[in-house]
């Protein structure tokens, strides 16, 4: 079985996340994609991070009618800073012989060298790397990893739907009173509205 891992803060989950997961299912020929919300992200500011309960609920609502997508709360339950290598190790223990594919955009390649135990990670799972808008011509020297990894990663880049939506943009739109219709699934839009998330004065609790 080929299982994809799509991690992130999902603060909130949006259509870009779901389209990326769908592209990965098709392009990498995956059987299932696990959406893994982080506990505390190691490379992002946490001031605007909604409580994990909200982020998990929004994810669950977003994928409720798609059996190919599954919310995995491993990092939230573990607590603390979320490192991908720890998640991959635990999933390999739980899933046995399943072939794991870590899903990411090309923008992540530039910071891979800062990831915990990155070379172990690269040997423990496969990478399904999708081109991001404006990232069509990648140079190996921009990926600060030991050979042959830069060339190997670039040669395997996949093409999917390039959707320019970000969680930070959605948070700004909510705070300013702008519509987020079509940016997020309808259940997520309702959840944000009903719980007052990302509005001015919200403490994300």
What does this structure look like?
- The protein is an alpha/beta fold and 205 residues long.
- Helix content is 37%, strand content 14%.
- The chain has a 5-stranded parallel sheet, with helices on both faces.
- α2 runs antiparallel to α8 and α4 runs parallel beside α5.
- It is globular, with a radius of gyration of 17 Å.
- The model has no long low-confidence stretch (mean pLDDT 93).
- Give the helix level as a range of percent: 25-40%
Rg, rounded, reads 17 Å
Q: Strand tally, please?
A: 5
Q: What general form does the structure show?
A: globular
In the CATH hierarchy, the architecture is: 3-Layer(aba) Sandwich
Distance between the termini: 38 Å
Secondary-structure element pattern, one letter each: EHEHEHHEHEHHH
- Number of helical stretches of at least 4 residues: 8
Structural class: alpha/beta
Instruction: Identify the quaternary structure here.
Output: single chain
Percent of residues in beta strands: 5-15%
Mean pLDDT: 93
Examine the coordinates and then state which fold CATH places here, giving the name of the CATH topology.
Rossmann fold
Uncertain parts? none
Q: Name the CATH class.
A: Alpha Beta
């Amino acid at each position: 079985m080929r299982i994809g891992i799509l991690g992130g803060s999902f603060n909130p989950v949006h259509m870009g996340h779901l389209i990326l997961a769908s592209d990965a299912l098709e392009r990498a020929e995956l059987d299932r994609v696990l959406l893994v919300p982080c506990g505390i992200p190691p490379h992002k500011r946490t001031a605007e991070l909604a409580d994990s309960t909200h982020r998990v609920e929004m994810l669950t609502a977003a994928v409720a009618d798609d059996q190919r997508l599954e919310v995995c709360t491993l990092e939230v339950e573990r607590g603390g800073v979320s490192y991908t290598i720890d998640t991959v190790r635990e999933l390999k223990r739980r899933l046995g012989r399943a072939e794991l594919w870590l899903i990411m955009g090309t923008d992540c390649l530039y910071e891979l060298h800062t990831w915990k135990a990155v070379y172990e990670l690269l040997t423990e799972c496969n990478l399904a790397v999708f081109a991001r808008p404006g990232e069509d011509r990648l140079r190996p020297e921009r990926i600060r990893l030991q050979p042959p990894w830069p060339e190997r990663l670039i040669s395997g880049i996949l093409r999917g739907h390039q959707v320019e939506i970000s969680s930070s943009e959605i948070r700004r739109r909510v705070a300013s009173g702008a519509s987020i219709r079509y940016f997020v699934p309808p259940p997520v839009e309702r959840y944000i509205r009903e719980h007052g998330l990302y509005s001015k004065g919200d403490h994300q609790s």
